[in-house]
Amino acid sequence: MCKLIDLEECISKGLVKKTVPSMEQAIVSISKSKALLVEAKGDLEDERYNSATVVAYLVLLNCSRALLFKDGYRERSHACVARYLEVKYKNKIPQDFIMLLDHYRETRHDVQYEPDFSAEADGARQIVEFSDKFLKLVENLMK
């Protein structure tokens, strides 16, 4: 994983934009994350590893967006979401969580766009489990 962009660059390119803070949108994003987590777990049980991986990543993305909405930001780049959390939640989200978020962003990309890539059972299980942990962390940060 390489960091190609930093938060300042994300902002200067309009990939992260200031907006009106919205706890309402943040709560909706958390609710969506919870529903998606149920789907991801079901996909995992049914051995649909590509689906489980993509849906679990959507849990991570929606959780992350919840924090941006709460803070009054919108994103136009998945990579910039991680950069935002890395800077703005430096002491609240462990660095290894940010690294996993980036890793799973890339994994989701491979599942979705690389014709010869398929998620495996263990990898799908790991992202689903991490999504559950990340959701709980973000819910605590929202309080």
Please outline the helices and strands.
Layout: H1 7-12, E1 16-18, H2 23-45, H3 49-71, E2 73-75, H4 78-88, H5 95-113, H6 121-142
Antiparallel strand pairs: 1-2
Helix pairs in contact: 2-3, 2-6, 3-4, 3-5, 3-6, 4-5
Structural commentary:
The protein has 143 residues and is mainly α. The protein has one domain (19-142): Up-down Bundle (Four Helix Bundle (Hemerythrin (Met), subunit A)), CATH 1.20.120.330. Helix content is 73%, strand content 4%. It contains six helices and two strands; from the N terminus they run αβααβααα. The chain has helices spanning 7-12, 23-45, 49-71, 78-88, 95-113, 121-142; strands at 16-18, 73-75. It has a two-stranded antiparallel ribbon. Helix 2 (23-45) packs antiparallel against helix 6 (121-142) and helix 3 packs parallel to helix 6 (121-142). The longest helix is centred in the N-terminal third of the chain and has 23 residues, at 23-45. It is globular, with a radius of gyration of 15 Å. The N and C termini lie far apart (31 Å). The mean pLDDT is 94.
